[in-house]
Fold this protein.
Amino acid sequence: MTTATTSAFPEGFLWGGATAANQLEGAYDEGGKGLSIQDVMPRGIMAPWTEGPTADNLKLEGIDFYHRYAEDIALFAEMGFTVFRLSIAWSRIFPNGDEDQPNEDGLAFYDRVLDELERHGIEPLVTISHYETPLHLAQAYDGWVSREMIGFYERYARVLFERYGHRVKYWLTFNEINALLFAPFMAGAITTPPEELSLADRYQAMHHQLVASALATKVARDIVPDVQVGCMIASMAYYPLTPDPRDVLAALQAEHETLAFGDVHVRGEYPGYLLRHLREHGVELEVSDADREALQHTVDFVSFSYYMSLCQTSDPTKKGTMGNILPGVPNPHLPTSEWGWQIDPVGLRLVLNQYWERWGKPLFIVENGLGAKDELVEVNGVKTVLDDYRIAYLNDHLVQVGEAIADGVQLLGYTSWGPIDLVSASTAQLSKRYGFIYVDRNDDGTGTLARYKKKSFDWYADVIRTNGASLRAGSASS
Ligand code: BGP
C-alpha cells in the first residue's frame, strides 16, 4: 500500500479544536442561566445525578471560559486555528427550556465570544445541543421521550439562527446523536432510569431528536441562505473479533446502531435494517406524516467524533467493555489509553472511507484526541507538559486522515477534542486531559486556573502552518 504525501490536505482545510459549553464555561448560575442536566451530574455519565448542584461538580466552574474566553481564543489563534467548535448552553438562552422569550444576557455572551473569534479570523462551528438540556425539560417532560421537546428545540434553534446566522455558517444539530440509545439522561434528558426505560421510549426519543434535527435544518435554510448544517455521530471502527461469519454479522449489527443515524440524516428515511430491528422487538414508532415530511430536510455534511475502535462477537462469554459511549470487546492487537480506550489510527481511515462511500456527503471530524494524565514540569524556567504521547496519538491519526483524503474522501476540516483541558464528559474529571493548553485545576477542585502551553501546542501550530506537511508517517503508535 502506498503512503500518501501529507500535502493531501486541501487548501482551505479547516484546522482547530472542539469544546462543549458545559465542560468549560463554568458560571453555571451567571447571566440568568438556568440549570442544565450537567449541573446535577458531578460524577459523569454512568453515576446517578444529584438533587441539585453540589460542590464536587467540576462543571459548575469548568475552566472558567465564561470569563476567560478572550485569553483562550487568543491562544487558539496563536496556534493558527481557522475553526473553533463550541456549543451553546441551551439553558443560557432558555433557562427552563419552555419559555416563550429567550434570555438576552445569555445571547449577549455568545455575541461576545463570536466577536472574539471574528477578530482572530476563526470560523465558528456551533453545536446547538451538546449534552446540556435545561434540567427543567428533564424534570417536567422526561426529556426527549416527550414529543413537546421538538417544539422547544425548534424555537431555541430559530432564536440562534436569527441572532447568529449572519456570522455562523457551520452548525451541528445534536452532539453524538446516537448516544441517546446508550446514555439516555446525558444525551436525552430522560429521567427514567436506564434499566426501566423501555425500548419503545428509547427509540421514540430518538425519533423526536431526528425530527427536531431535520426541522432545525429547514429553519436554518429559511433564515440563512448559504448555511451548512451537519449531523454529528459518535463513531467507532468495529471489527469482528474473529473471522467467524457470526462475529462479522455481530460487527455489522453494532455498526448499524451508529449508521442508522447517518442514514436518516442523509437519506431522509429509516433504513430497512432498523425497521426490522424495531419490528422484531415489538416497537412501533409514532411517526406522523408531518414527521416524514420533516425528515426530508437532509443535512449538508456529516460530522463525527472518533477516538477508538472495538471488536464485536457473537460469543456471549467474551467480556465486554465500554468505549466512548459505545460498547464492544477489546481488540488484542491495539494499545490502550490510561482510561481503557483502544488507540487505532487506521480505524479513522476506515471510518472516513466508509462514510464517504456510503453517504457521498462532505465529512467533518469534529472530535478526536487522547485523554491522558499530564504532569506540569519546568523547562528553562517555563512551566509546560512534555506530552509526546499526545503528539504521537494526534500525529498518527492525522497521517491516516491524510491517507483517507488521498483515497478520495472529501473532508471539510478537523477539530481535535478539548484543545484546552476541560472537564471530561464520561468521568467528570479534569485529570483526563486532552488539551494543547494545560489548565491548573485538579479533580478536587483546587488550582489557580492558570493556563500553560504544552509541548503539543507548538507541534499543532506547526501542523496547521504547514497544512499537514509536518506530520510524520509511522510514529510510535501507528
Ligand atoms: C464525546 C463528547 C465530548 C467529549 C469527548 C471525550 O463523547 O462529545 O463531550 O467529552 O467524548 O470524552 P471524555 O470526556 O469522556 O473523555
